[in-house]
């Protein structure tokens, strides 16, 4: 192989290794997390208000 091909193969190998490491960490995180959906910023436990629910 040429030097350029060797470098490309090494980069690919490192990227695949990192991808596998990240995927394994995600699986571990999911198995340890509670079974509730993730919360987004601004979410509350209150149901959404409708215009007809406004007491004013």
From TrEMBL:
Residues 17-56 are annotated as: Disordered. This is DUF4169 domain-containing protein. It comes from the Bacteria. It comes from Methylobacterium adhaesivum. Residues 29-56 have a biased composition (Basic and acidic residues).
């Amino acid at each position: 192989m040429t030097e350029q091909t060797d470098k490309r193969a090494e980069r690919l190998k490192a990227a695949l290794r990192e991808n596998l490491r990240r995927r394994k960490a995600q699986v571990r995180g999911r198995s340890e997390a509670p079974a509730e959906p993730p919360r987004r910023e601004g979410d509350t436990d209150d149901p959404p208000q409708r215009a007809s629910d406004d007491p004013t």
